[in-house]
Amino acid sequence: MHKTRLYLLIVLALCLGACAPLAGDAGTLRVTILADGGSRAVSLPAGSSVRSALEAAGVQLGALDRSEPPSFTILQGGQQVRVLRVHEEFETEQTPLPFTSRTLPNEALPVGEQRLIQNGVNGLQEATYRLLYEDGELVSRTLVGSVVLAQPVDEIIMIGAQAPFSAVSLPGRLAFLSAGNAWVLEGSSGLRRAVAATGDLDGRIFEVSPDGRWLLFSRDSAESQAINELWLASLDEGPLTLIDLEVRNMVHYAGWRPGREYQIAFSTVDPSPNPPGWQARNDLQLLDISAAGQPGTPQVALVARGDGFYAWWGSSYAWSPSGDRLAFARPDAVGTVNLATRDLDAWFDLPAYQTGSDWAWIPGLSWLDEESFYFVRYNFSPPGFALVLAGPDGVRPIAADVGLFAMPQTEPGGAQVAYLRAFLPTQGEISGYQLMVATPEGVSMALFPPEGAAGLTPQRVAWSPSAEQGPLVAFIYEGDLWVVNVLSGQAQQLTGDGLVSALSWR
Question: pTM of this prediction?
């Protein structure tokens, strides 16, 4: 009986030994690797990972290759490991960006008449895709980048919206900003042309060149770290010509330098998430422009500086008639810029006006000649704003109680100065204003509006470049462009859309 049991135990042990190779000998694993269209079996110590099995089989994974199960998996006996060969490819695809059609009202055309002033052109966008293949089969297609190769050009159609007032003869070129677009009147207020029809001009910079050929303007920027951009528009008749000067972030000043063909000066800010949205650099740079409107390389005239009260707000500048001297104005001082030493010569230190808000007041100024300029002076005690003329002989009063937004503008080649006078001088921030002219001797005359009418909003007015028909002053009243003859006092409305926000006349 005992011999029979012993015999059975021996037979059972032999059977188990015969079956053992299916999982490997004691302490070993047997694994099959499927890779590159073939298979191979390897034996490994118990507790080995997929990575060890691949190394034992001499199978290497590329940077994108993967295994099933993953390489960190601990194996059990009798498993299969599949290697997936992965590679990527990139392809580009170009698609058109359709243009949009925009209409602009034009009071120089009869009501209902339409005129195409710019053909629309589709833009072009290029997209880049990542294609992923596993063992030769496409498993994913993912967009990884997109770039605009060409911006679409809007189709622009002018629609007649003839004004109910008569045309006025105008010398030079009078440019104005309406609803984000720039227009020019040349010869007559009835001859109106669009010169920049992008719809995004912000009105901070808007100035015609001394010879009347170019309009310097700022427009909103699509760049995430830019407030705006500086551009040129040709004022000559023909196709609309816009040139990017590759200058960004101008808030207070950019303008043409008289006596130079062509040169502009500009001051910049750094965008900020805090009010008022920027930190002024108080720098000044000069940029030469070719006759074709192409910019050169900016040259530093004043390095960035942080001196002065309210330096974070910024400074403004004004050229003398010859372009040889440059005046500056900041919340606590006015004076001139020494272009040779790149420093400031403060003529007058001023008490900074406390606005009680996140903005600062900068004195308005305008040169009379090469030696003297008008500016608005703030007096702390008694409080008030006065228009004065500063020169080698000191300060001469021109007009008292003008309000903080008097903004003097001197007549080209003449001695008269146009300025605004607040109806409520002690509440100049909310008051309406009256358009005035004065002589250097301080004799003032009111021009507009008539008694009892609403006042003007703060603005820079513009003189006509010549006085053939008597000196004219252009200004904005209730959103429309007006001119007034200084000699006769006759005022004439030129536009009727109610959307004008800036002007310049040369």
Answer: 0.72
